[in-house]
Fold each of these.
Amino acid sequence: MSNTLAILGGTPVSKEKLPEELPYIGKEEEEALREVVRSRMISVFTSPKVHEFEQKFSDLVGVPHAVTVNSGTAAIHSALIAIGCKEGDEVIVPVYTYVASAIPMMIERCKVVFADVSPDTMNIDPENVESLITEKTKAIMPVHLFGNPADLDLLNEICYDNNIALIEDAAQAVGAHFGGDHVGSSNIGCFSFGETKMITCGEGGMVTCTSDELYNRLIAIRQEGETIGNYATTDPAMSSLTAEDVIHGIDYHIMGYNYRMTAFQAAVGSAQIDKLPKIVRMRRDNAKYLMNNLGSFDELKFQTVHPKAQSVYNRLVLRVASSIDRDGFLGALIAEGVPAGVWYPRLLTEGALMSQTFPDEARKSFPGASALCKSELVLPVYPGLTRAHLDLIIEAVEKVLDAFTSDPAIAESVHEITMKRSLTRFFSSVYMEY
């Protein structure tokens, strides 16, 4: 095979498009949906599927309570309301994450205080977090980025010492553990079931908690704050109420929203939980294979996992050395047939919304996160990839790396070509995770 890079006219390593990332769903989910359709009971009020999903998920995480909502963003928003976040409160969030981790705070008129991340773990830096705490700090929200748990030992200690709530954004980390415990089990956890998450029902979310008080607030929040006596109207225990309670007892003591999940989503989610061990195993095996074969290159550094943590590799992320042009490297990999990508190419504070809303935060320096934005690269490890596919990915990475390190002029040419390519052409040959 020619050593000339495909982007420069050579033969690509993979002549055929590698499988795209698609949800790991099949006949089990199809039958679960058919069962809901046949029952004609499709909501949390009429179908047992929603509560069954909640029970399975609480068992998975190892907590007393799990509350379904209709997205991961809704999960974070519900958690904030449940712990009593109000205007003027501060919530510490990593600056290197998706915008949905910060928008719920803005809805509640809280101040988002951004923390830097460790470039090695790519997770929130506990030392930086501690320096940001003030008398207005209401909560700290680490994000278990790419399925890799943050340092929950240090973060829980910081929260305990300062009487601050810990909200875990585990949207990408269903199935991940820290110290033997599932993420989201320490106080309150937020999960997502979007299409690219560890398990999916199209869209959906879950809030887990250990407190009965928080649970009662959460199930009211997802139903416009509606309660009857001591029960939210989506509480399965409400069946113990009398007709008089229902007719005369409806009231609203807390601001809520319509964050309900349908029985269709819950049925698919339950089927997905059964497949989670296999999904995690496939992702870990694929990630381990790539890391074992590419980890010896000094120019490539894979995300570090805490010794007490077990990542689920929702994404396999690495950093390319500063001597390597990341954007050109990405373009060259895509041309070779590898569905590579970048996930967070800039800090949240560099976006228009956050920089205008929190100008003081935008002026801060975040050296760890800034370095990541310029160097991170995502390689595919999702179910559906075979060992042969992984070997092609390894061959392509080695080919591009050899070209970039042997002749700087090649890297310059590739960068120029990559940046000038139209979006249609850039996306036409493979699926890029942007």
Amino acid sequence: MKRYVIIPTTTVLILLTAFGYLSLYKADDLRSPLDRPRPGQKLSFTLITGSNSPFFFPGLKNLVGSVHKWSPDRDIVVWDLGLSPEQVAEVKTWCRVTYRKFDFDKYPPHLRNLHTYAWKPVIVKEMVDTYERVLWIDAGSHINDSMSTMDQLMWEDGYILIQGQDADTTLFLHEKMCLHLGLKKTSFKNKPSFAGGFNGWSNRPYLYQKLLIPWFTCALTQRCIAPEGASLANHRFDQSALTVISYSSGLDLKPHTELNRIEKESRNGNKMYLDRVRKKPC
């Protein structure tokens, strides 16, 4: 008598992804409504960011104030990458903000060099594992309009990627990263980068396995994310890795560069929303 084992759909997707069969997924598959809001639920993601002491003011505080202004019910997680005790104490007073301290001791030494940005994919993965859907925004940026479009995109697509900061990613892409990943740098000529400072993620299996896990794995390997000779003059570290992995994933990813009008890269210089930060109790 034959016996049959029922394998969960999620397990099948992960196995197919591991063997490369999900490279046939196209945009319509990515936008399948796998995640559906509960009745009355509008917010689709938790906003996450990280900061050290120099980016606390005005950058981090202004970002939180802008979210309090434009999406007051949004949960925010702030990761401590080197804040002072006084700054930590203030973060803990902010409404709807959860404080987390990054444990550098758990990871390879190169993550301590904040300028490699290797800590970012590690944080993103941990947050996706915790919250299912998250949006990363650099602490030097801010929100300048309603976030409802972002919520809708996350419900529909399960990811958010944007472009617009360059027209050719190879201008700031170290060849040794490509060699480590088994890719040719020339294959990315005249392809724009996907922004490292603003990206949304979910735990949909094909996105998780084809994008997030390779990005996370690269971040843990110095030869991948920060190869010898790489600097900001010739490489963009987390952004470079995200870009080449996205183009090589086999997924038909649609950049939503129109969101640049909502998310503003202010490079730690904007103070418009400092007075909008709300304190606990909320």
Amino acid sequence: MLHARLNGYLTYFERLATQPTNHWNGFYMSQHEGMNFALRYQLSFACYALGALALHPIASRAEQQRARSAMAALIDRMLQRRVWAYWAARADQRNTDIDPINEANVQYSGALSMMLGAYRVAGGDTRYDEPFTLVWSPADRFHYTHTSVVDTIANQMQRNRHHGVECEPGRINVSTMNHALWGNLLHDRIFHTTYAITHDLWFEYVVKHLVQRGLRLMGRTIFQAAYTSRLWPGASFGNTFTDAWALACMVALAPDLARELAPRFIKTVVHLPPNQNGALVHVPVGAMWQAKEAADEATATGFSYLLAVEMGEAELAAALLNFADSHLNPTDHEGGRFYNAGLAPIYTTALFALGEAGGLQVLANAHPASDETSMDTEENFAVSH
């Protein structure tokens, strides 16, 4: 059985995921759904954390099943119109494709792809191998399967000169692309496909165009936060939040590059005077970034913790977790455990829970069950909202 902290995370995510589908209690309703605290990120990182909990070596079969059921509930929420309405509404105004997966918008499609892969490698059933539907209006309905989501993303990677997929029209970035790469990687593990074949070409482009070099000046961090893919040159700004996010998700995808760049980021973390539990480290974020819903201290520190776990930096990870336990308002409520801090507590909690459960490497190293031996036996069904 999971120990108390991990079981508390499981209970917390389970409660939020399985509430009535039109209820969003405990989620942050972003004022800027195109930014970094949108529902898609709250849903997706909670799903990855649940995948790691389901795969934890001490999780009981009952806990594994609870985690998988909550993952499916989060995926079903991800398909809801309100999660991708930011894209369709703007596309409707521009008279362009409303479909949130077909072209660009990897900030949504990449996260969904990784969620679907995480569900399967965590022992989930084959329900998403069957068609599910994203509904914008009676006339605008988009049908996909797990494989067709991945295939749509991979086809864009193959034909685009940068071998990536745009996050927004005309812009690409490393952090959101990483989720698409994870989706490819997990699909290849499950179905023995070769979607990850273009990853090296993408990372070559990243090194040439999206990694910032030179003096560390204001706004010049490691990665360009929003590279202009249709014009030259790209925007030359970034922040510690997107750096930590990109690096944490990159370690298993491009380990040599991540390990080359991570020390630059680690130099930016802030050490506080130790408390009775040991060292304290955090990643402060300016008020401007939080006001724009681009970053906050809680999630920047959470991504830094996840990066430390992925890198095997045990002392740094312990100091970051100690900061969370000391400063991010850990809360126990009706058997659930969460960090009641930051713009989106579920997002903050997901990052620390994922790290405590072993990190993204748990998903990368999983041995997915075949269709015949999947640990779940629920009937397949199509999802429509």
Amino acid sequence: MAFRTGCDAIWCRGFSLSLEGEALEWFDALPNGSIGDFKSLGDMFKNQFAACRTQDSMVVDLMNLKQGKDESLKVFMDRYQKTVRQVRGLSVELALQYVMPALRPNPFKDSVCRTPPKTMEELRQRAADEMLVEEMKQNYQREAQEAKAERTDRKREG
């Protein structure tokens, strides 16, 4: 619907026709006479619903995504998947293509290079499997450090 008029009252009424749900309820609850002009209505609307606005990412954001030096695979994959969801119209093939250069060198990246995943679900599952391995290694290292500390303490005591 297009309005070819400079009349703010018509613009404001037309704006209300584009609303539904919570936005329409908000508009209907505005006190009579609270809208000065179309610009102020727009400002009021933006202020009310600014938190609901989603920020779309672009493919370049995905291309620039890199796993940090000390970033766990879990934290990186959460960030990667969030970025993928925010890129409108992104094909699965392109999303999968950009994961490999984003990963730092590690066994998971080697696995993805040898056998690229065909679906996002396959990528998620393989990453989840690798996360379990990472977690087991961290637990083993922590237990080994604790055992070493206990041995050192016993030597000092004895």
